[in-house]
Amino acid sequence: MDEIKRAMEVADLLPFRYLILHVGLPHEEYDLAKFDAAFTSIEHLKIFAKERGAQVLLENTPNELSTPERLLEFISYTRMEDLKICFDTGHAHMTGGVRSAFQTLRDRIVSTHVHDNRREKDDHFMPFDGEIDWEQTVRDFRAVDGQFPVLFELRHYGPQVSSLTRLREVMERIESIK
Questions:
Q1: What residue ranges in the chain does DSSP mark as E strands?
Q2: Measured between alpha carbons, how far is 62 from 23 in angstroms, rounded to an integer?
Q3: How far is the C-alpha of 42 from the C-alpha of 38, rounded, in Å?
Q4: What is the dihedral of CA 142, 131, 123, 148, to 10 degrees?
Q5: Nearest to 162 by CA among 119, 114, 120
Q6: Low-confidence residues of the chain: pLDDT under 70
Q7: Count H helices, E strands: the chain?
C-alpha cells in the first residue's frame, strides 16, 4: 500500500484521473479474508487518491478475487458503492468471455484497458490480432449510456506491431464498426 501511495504522489505534480487497482495477484484463489484485507487497503487508498483528485477503479483480472461477479460481490460486501471499474478486454477474454464480463460490469465501467489475446496468456496484442470478437465488443461499448475512455494497453513486439500508423489503422477499423 505504501508503494501505491508513493506512486500516487506523482498526482501532486502531474494530475491523473484514475488509479487502477488489481485485487489480488494473477491466479490467486478466493478467500473472504482476502476481501477484508483488500477492503482495508482500498478504503485507505481511496482517501489518499481523493486528496489528489483521483478516483480508485478496480480492474477485472485473471484471478478468483477479481472476476466480474466477485468484483460486484466485493463492492456489495464492503458497501463501497462509489467504487467503479476499469474494464480490461484481454483479462475478460481469458476468464469467461468479453461479452459476459462486460454485461456483468457495464453499469460500473468508467474506463477501459483495451487489448487482445488468444485466451492462453495476457499477450496485450493490438485489437484484431488475437481472438476477441471486436465487432461485438465495440457494439457493446457503444450501447452503454455515456462515454468512457478507451485506453489501449499494448506490448511492443516489433516496429510495425504497435506503431502509430498501425494504431491509426486499428482505430479506423474500430470506428467503422456499425
A1: 18-22, 55-59, 84-88, 109-114, 150-152
A2: 10
A3: 6
A4: 0
A5: 114
A6: 158-162
A7: 7, 5
User: Any idea what DSSP says for residue 86?
Assistant: E
Show the cell assigned to 39. 477492503
pLDDT of amino acid 11: 83
Cα end-to-end distance, the chain, whole Å: 43
Question: How far, in Å, CA of 169 to CA of 13, rounded?
Answer: 34
Judge whether 145 and 110 are in contact, CB under 8 Å: no
> Per the structure block, which three cell numbers stand in for 72?
460486484
Give the CA angle between residues 58, 66, 59 to the nearest 5°.
25
- Phi first, then psi: give them for residue 102, nearest 5 degrees: -65, -45
pLDDT, position 161: 67
At 151 the pLDDT is 94
Q: How far apart are CA 140 and CA 98, in angstroms?
A: 10
Q: How far is CA 56 from the centre of its chain?
A: 11
Q: Where do the structural domains in the chain lie, given as residue ranges?
A: 2-175
Question: How high is the pLDDT of residue 2?
Answer: 85
User: What class does CATH assign to 2-175?
Assistant: alpha beta
pTM over 0.85? The answer is yes
